[in-house]
Write a structure and sequence with these properties.
453 residues; mainly alpha; Arc Repressor Mutant, subunit A; 2 domains; two-stranded antiparallel sheet; 20 helices; globular
Length: 453
């Protein structure tokens, strides 16, 4: 009797567990549909904020779990190990000429501080290498190799950001050389200037008097302690704005920089705790443990940076969030999107209104950004649209409106520009090779009767 009762209870528990799992899966599926395929998403209030935050978090987590960001972060770890000394040598050479290189050293120690005392030793060794590397006596070949090593690191960073932003092209060779070097040389100067201005402001007589007044003095002290964190946020924001080879809106870059800065602070504390409690790893790997910790710490930093870039991308282009990361543009999507783009350009042109901005128009479609860009590119190549404005970032009709028909737009959207269709075997009868005739309802069985008779 007891045995039967136990079996009954066990079966009941298993049944309830299965029901709970099924119910949870159904609820998760419903939530996923509400986030990713909602035909009427909330537009105002707290519900809209939760909707946007949920969609963005879902998309970023999907990016991380898919392994795409991890692949780029791993590549950047290897490049960082090769380039960190040349990068610092090139940056510090400019600061040394101005006598301001010592102000950047605390940031280097702050970066390696989560690794414990061994991390501080690594930072000191790097500074020794940098001091011993005299850029002026390297010679033309040595200097060229030094610059190439640094530029290759920044180029890989741009490639990772462009992959996140679905941008197919890197900057031109001239732009890479000028933009990269300007960031490497001018960026540290701006950082040092910000530190100097902050220190000057806090040391003024007015600020000292204000600090004597409570509770204003406590607020100022707290703000001064948050200065390093704010500089980290600004550094992240600058990278998110500058690195992708596309226009990034500052407000989204600032949001991404703030989230990445908070994640970096939390990651620093968590990693410091991990290093302090990982005595087993030190016992197993001995002197190699610090090398492993260094690789993990650099990898974690790159993951935080790239995850922040994904946040910025999905905030600026919410239409890129769908049930699947890589959306296959169906013929229906291409045709309707092409007609929508054409209508949105022709309507203000016919009314005598200013032409719409290309990026704004593509964002209003609420479809994946790269799909919208490919379709607008097709319409431009077909001569139906034409870039306008000082920077070519607006769109106007490429022909007179009385010379553009809906069939022209559909033909441009359907056009096989790579000539792949020509490779298909010529086996179709004439009534299937072209467009279906209006009212055509014949089945394949009926169409094949002439061949079988």
């Amino acid at each position: 009797m007891m045995r039967f009762l136990r079996q009954h209870i066990l079966c009941s528990c298993i049944t309830k567990g299965v029901m709970i799992i099924r119910k949870s899966k159904k609820q998760l599926k419903t939530a996923e549909q509400w986030l990713l395929a909602n035909p009427a998403p909330p537009e105002k209030g707290a519900a809209a904020g939760i909707y946007v935050a949920g969609r963005t978090a879902y998309a970023v987590i999907r990016e991380i779990t898919s392994g795409r960001l991890a692949l780029h972060a791993t590549s950047l770890v290897y490049t960082t190990l090769l380039s960190i000394v040349p990068l610092l040598a090139l940056s510090f050479s400019v600061l040394q000429a101005m006598g301001a290189h010592q102000r950047m050293e605390p940031f280097l120690f702050q970066f390696f501080e989560p690794m414990g005392p061994e991390g501080i030793e690594i930072a000191e060794q790097i500074l020794v290498f940098v001091d011993q590397m005299k850029v002026g006596v390297l010679g033309s070949v040595g200097l060229a190799f030094l610059v190439y090593t640094v530029i290759s690191l920044v180029q890989k960073i741009e490639l990772s950001f462009n992959t996140i932003w679905r941008v197919p092209n890197l900057r031109s060779m001239g732009q890479r050389f000028s933009n990269y070097l300007s960031v490497i040389l001018v960026g540290p100067l701006l950082m040092v200037s910000a530190i100097g201005i902050t220190a000057t402001v806090f040391s003024t007589t007015i600020m000292q008097r204000l600090m004597e007044i409570e509770p204003l003095g406590s607020v100022i002290i707290i703000m001064s302690r948050f200065t390093p964190f704010l500089l980290v946020v600004l550094a992240f924001t600058f990278l998110y704005t500058f690195m992708p080879n596309t226009r990034v809106r500052l407000r989204y870059a600032l949001i991404g920089g703030l989230i990445a800065g908070l994640a970096w602070q939390a990651g620093s504390m968590a990693f410091a705790t991990f290093v302090a409690t990982s005595t087993r790893y030190a016992a197993i790997y001995s002197s190699f443990a610090i090398g492993i910790f260094l690789l993990i710490w650099i990898y974690l930093n790159w993951m935080i940076l790239l995850a922040g870039a994904s946040i910025v991308f999905y905030l600026q282009t919410p239409g890129s969030i769908a049930l699947h990361r890589d959306v296959e543009p169906s013929p229906e999507l291409q045709e309707k999107a092409a007609m929508t783009i054409m209508w949105q350009v022709c309507r203000p042109f016919a009314r005598g209104e200013p032409p719409p901005g290309r990026e704004t128009l593509e964002e209003q479609l609420n479809i994946p950004w790269e799909t919208a860009r490919k379709i607008s590119d097709k319409l431009i190549r077909a001569g139906l649209l034409m870039p306008a404005g000082e920077n070519g970032d607006h769109l106007v009709p490429g022909k007179a409106l009385d010379r553009i028909t809906p069939k022209d737009v559909l033909d441009a959207a359907r056009k096989d520009e790579d000539r792949i269709v020509a490779r298909l075997p010529d086996v179709l009868p004439d009534n299937l090779a072209g467009e279906p005739r209006p009212g055509e309802t014949a089945t394949f069985s009926e169409l094949m009767r002439p061949e079988t008779s």
